[in-house]
Amino acid sequence: MRTLWRCVRMQNRIFWRTPIAAFFSLVFPVLMLVLFTAIFGNDAFDSVYGRVSSSQFYTPGLAVYAAASSTYTGIGVNLASRRELGILKRVRGTPLPPWVYLGGVVLSAVWVAALGVVAMVALGVAAYGVNIEAAKVPAMVVTFVVGSASFAALGLALASLARSVSMAVPMANATLLPLAFVSNIFVPFGTDTPAWLDVLGDIFPLKHFGLAFGEAMNPFSSAPAFEWHRLGVLLLWLVAGAAVAAWRFSWEPPVVAGRKSRSLARTAPA
Amino acid sequence: MPAPRAERAGGSLLAADSVPRVGPAVAVADLVKDYGAVRAVDGVSFEVERGEVFALLGPNGAGKSTTVEILEGHRTRTSGTVQVLDTDPASAGASFRDRIGIVLQSSGIDPELTAREAIDFYGAAYSRRVPTDDLIEMVELGEKADARISTLSGGQQRRIDMALGLVGDPDVVFLDEPTTGFDPAARRRGWELVERLASQQRAVLLTTHYLDEAEHLADRVAVLARGRIVAEGTPAQLRARAGSALIRFAVPDRVEPVSDLLAPVSGRIVGRGRHVEITTDTPTADLAQVTGWAAERGFELEGLTVTTPSLEDVYLSLVADGEGGVEPDDVGGVPDGRDGVPFGAGARPGDGDDGNAPDDGDGQP
Question: What global pTM score does this model have?
């Protein structure tokens, strides 16, 4: 346990010393809430949650987006970069248990995700009067934990499939960003949304994560507001991500044109 | 510099030695490693005793890194037996890695951390750990210990690599090109550190491209070429293998095939284009044959020298053989130069195995 704690603290230290990662994980999503509310106004409109203000719609979605970005993109890019630098290989040559090292990476990312969610919800409540109820807080917490764990597992899968950092970054962005558009995060879905987009969003975990978290903040939902079927979908993705990672994860640095590199890679998550 | 670790010479070393030990620190027998159809390591056997520095030499792709990584537990083997500290690395766990120290070229360090933080973090995983300040002093990091690793030079990062390899007070140390990137003075001090490791009864397995490094540090040397050990012994024994003298010269472009010249020569002949090298135990006779032949035809042998072979000469001729170098029988076509094997012949394209090595040229001082 103490070893795991040390690993988490070291990963946190690395995170805070990489300003670009801190910006994209924490500042950027909050900035989007401010911008969306400024652009679209904060008037009530008919959404999946019923007639709620646009900040009430955007706050849970962007909170979940921040959590997914910190875990999925954060872990995927971080591990791809550590592998490329030969750090994972170094770890394998020490008595440090590999799973403890990976646990440190995952828990550190979940901790950053929690900070992002708390920042988002705090801003929403304080600045825009977004609804939050004590009786539904357990649902928020459980949804956050399950969703973050799911995206953390997908981050491990990403790091397993991307052979280099230069692949991991575009792979992360090319999957998470389009997904956010069909998952009721950036764009509210109404009744006139094409059915195939609905289905597309339903297949992937981000929409379920967002709606489960949104229902836990929705003024019209009834406590405790657990969306069990959505949490179930998230758990399925967790298992899928973990399976891919167990199958393909590598500790060896990639061979770049006949020469292993230690100078090539500098972390640049986006 | 004060003795780096008094406690090892006294306490911890004695404690470690009170455990009954059988066999050498490293024992490898008939090691084979295939990558698909390619046999990277082809029946390698050697042993390393405690207190001994053993150097593996060889061009890129010879199988050095593969061999060492099998010993470290980074790779599995195809066949053969491997014992490191009486343990099979392939199935060994954390308690095995607690006793070995690895300094690899290809393993990086988190650039966001400082050297001190990295040593503290990785050191905490070991049961016997050397105090961070001692290590910082031992590898002479000084005031750079608290700078971000990303701001340090390659040579300074190598020192941190070294510190991280030694932080667990290892019984076996694997050093992969430990002084690459060091300036000459730092290199000398790096060598002193390696000598000290051996004097503390650790087994040191060194891979290097620097022949002078192997000659200076190694008690025994094995030369690998194409996955096989082509020579093994002390540096002095290897030098002796090459005969007592090395005759070098180049024949002029216009000269006929020189097989008639070389046929009566008793020594070993390696031809590279117009350049001919003869290693021989009878330099007087061979030299007379060569110069008589040239004088008869009325031309000068360019760059004619007779020298005592260095370890490097031996290494290069061994490696040239292993890489398809020209044997005496093949030398007929020397002036044509098509058979020429470039020195440091290991630069086979597409080689990934030992690809972490520096440019071949750098390795051949």
Answer: 0.79
